[in-house]
Amino acid sequence: MRVALVGNQNSGKTTLFNLLTGSHQKIGNWPGVTIEKKEGIIRTTDFELIDLPGVYSLSAYSQDEKITVDYLLNEKVDLIVNIIDATAIERSLYLTTQLLELNIPVVIALNMSDLIEKNGIKIDFEYIEKKLDTTIIQISALKKFGILNLIQAIKQPNNRKNKYVHIFDHILEDAITKIEKNIDHPFKRYIALKLIEGHELFAKYNQKSIQEIIDDIKPNYQRDLEQIIVDERYRYIESIRDESIKWHRRHMTVTDKVDRVILNKYLALPIFMGIMFLIYYLAAGPFGSLTVDFVDQLIGKFSEWFNLKLISWNASDWSRSLVIDGVVAGVGAVLNFVPQLIILFIGISLLETTGYMSRIAFFLDRVFQKVGLSGKSLIPFIVGSGCSVPAIMSARSIQDETEKKVTIMLTPFIPCSAKLPIITLFAGYFFSDHSGLVSASLYFLAIILIIGIAFVFKKIFYKDHQSSFILELPSYKVPQVSYIVKDVYQKVAAFVVQAGTIIFMSSVLIWFLISFSFAFEYGVLPDESMLAGIGKVFSWLFYPFLGTFSWEASVSVIQGLVAKEQVISSMAIIAGFSEGTSSGVLIFNASAFSFFSASSAYAFMVFNLFSAPCFGSIGAMKKELRDSKSLWLALGLQTGIAWVLATIVYQVGHLIEVLL
Amino acid sequence: MKIKQHFNIGDITTVDLLPKGTKVKVTEIHTPDHIFKRRLMDMGITEGVRMQIKKIAPLGDPIDIELRGYELCLRKKDLALINVEVIK
């Protein structure tokens, strides 16, 4: 049996999906988290459950609506579980009236039902059940109650009734019945309504006889039929509401009170900046660096201990070098940053689940609208400080195609968590006392770049482009600790797995390339190795902002394409092979990287942060942009701007260094 | 510079011109973009629906309105397409 989970955006659909199937999906308190449809098996059954994108209507105009309609019409769904937000029941039932027309049994899961009483609402469920001829199960996905009842209702066939209830006036109902007779399709009623509405997507089902019926009823109404149908639906819902829902008006809800401060005219911006600063300061500032040093020492001790072990096992020189100088140095350099990432991911997860993200989109829309973006672009940008891949995918919640495209192209400018190691390492060493300030300046630079480029795009490519902004503002929710823990764990685990696979293999490869010459002699000087040979081909590209031909830095930068943390990993391995290494900050005491000054260090960070992102992100961009021209434009733009900017930073900075 | 006008009950105007807290009734949506109009209607903005201006973004735009028991944010320029009657 196939069960489809359908509901409005932000109705708790994904949370319910996880509870029903036991799987763990992404949850957030901003509309549009379900990015693609997901499948699972409902616990204690063999029923397939499909999580469809959140929609407010089956209008079949937006991408999400089309996916949902297409699935319901063509994939032989046996039962629809319609999840409804109890705090927005009126708007939610609008979708329900459309689902009921599909002639697929519907069970309503009334989510957040624990908030009904709290909000001073009284609902006569029996009345609604009778009026819609369906089953309503009260649940709370967050508090985990009513779930077993819901599974029972899904299992019991006699719980599913839905004989179609007439909701339109008799003229429309008559016309619908007549049109249905002329349609050969399992979803006659839906198609009939779409034909009356005049939806182009369904024009192929239209015939002369049908058009005559539609033309016949038109004179009865003063407005177009599409509007009449929507009005009639809401009128029917209003009549149900008036009979079954009693409000005890409260002056102000908790959300209203919180918003009075958070969205206050003067406080909104300072609070937002304060929160973001706090998150990044904790992650990338002195506190984050402290955790990095701590893990670094642990790994250093492990490296020494393991080296001695290998000696005691009589391991050969080259195999010991492969393990210690290659794998442990490379993978270890990346693992140092795990505590920092945990801080960052907790911060982002909190922003996502509390409902603050929607507020940010709301109050900064004005700024982003000016440069041709949407307030909703902020969601990908903030998620992007964790990882660009989910960030690029979350851009789908932006309705306007142009705004979405530009947002996707600009999201990689936000320094992601994999770039954090680069920032921490360079800022910590070269700007020790001001490392927090320098890290902050890079995020700030990213924002300036995004706004500046978006503005230029708007002026050149999308001059007269007009777009709209429709955003539901959800109530605040207290974040669930267990969810945050799981969410952060998953992201950190993904990072560690990446360190264990991609970084591991890259480290082995780098060790191989630096240990052998092109003539396959082992133990050559690093300068005569294959790696040096490769790096020297490219090193002129980076001369303008490094101030020297460094094959070591060049090969490391290029490896950023594999994964940005690989830059640090590669530098750690190369440093291990060059002379002058001592304890402490290993990388910059090595002769290979001793050329770095404050200006070239800053320039190096700028280039790594803003040039083409890693392959994972490029893949996500390709998928979401669906247009290789835009992809190449974006990658070219990113790399070009990064190079120019890095060069300016170095040249100006170097001049100042010389003069001082 | 927009002059702050005074509105009386029964006036027909658009939401973008009204102060916070005003309650209105929608009388007409007039946009040539029928897909956008449909989106607004799908969100519950139909003729006759009652709305209240809940929050105005710190920078003056967008505006958050409450209708049908939930809150919806729209830009001023879109709200200018919706004629309303001031009821309170």
Short account of what is shown:
By secondary structure, chain A is an alpha/beta fold. Chain A folds into three domains: 158 residues, Rossmann fold (3-Layer(aba) Sandwich), CATH 3.40.50; 78 residues, Helix Hairpins, CATH 1.10.287.1770; 386 residues, no CATH class. Chain A is built from 29 helices and nine strands.
Topology at a glance:
The complex is a heterodimer of chains A (660) and B (88).
Chain A: E1 2-7, H1 13-21, E2 38-41, E3 48-51, H2 63-74, E4 79-85, H3 89-99, E5 106-111, H4 114-118, E6 121-123, H5 125-132, E7 135-138, H6 147-155, H7 170-181, H8 188-197, H9 208-217, H10 225-244, E8 245-247, H11 254-262, H12 268-284, H13 286-312, H14 317-335, H15 338-354, H16 356-370, H17 378-383, H18 388-394, H19 401-410, H20 420-430, H21 435-460, E9 470-472, H22 481-515, H23 530-546, H24 551-559, H25 565-577, H26 586-589, H27 598-610, H28 615-625, H29 628-659
Parallel strand pairs in A: 1-3, 1-4, 4-5, 5-7
Antiparallel strand pairs in A: 2-3, 6-8
Helix pairs in contact in A: 3-10, 5-10, 7-8, 7-9, 12-13, 12-15, 13-14, 13-15, 14-22, 14-25, 15-22, 18-28, 20-21, 20-27, 22-25, 23-24, 23-29, 24-25, 27-29, 28-29
Chain B: E1 12-14, E2 23-29, H1 34-42, E3 50-56, E4 63-67, E5 70-74, H2 76-79, E6 82-86
Antiparallel strand pairs in B: 1-6, 2-3, 2-6, 3-4, 4-5
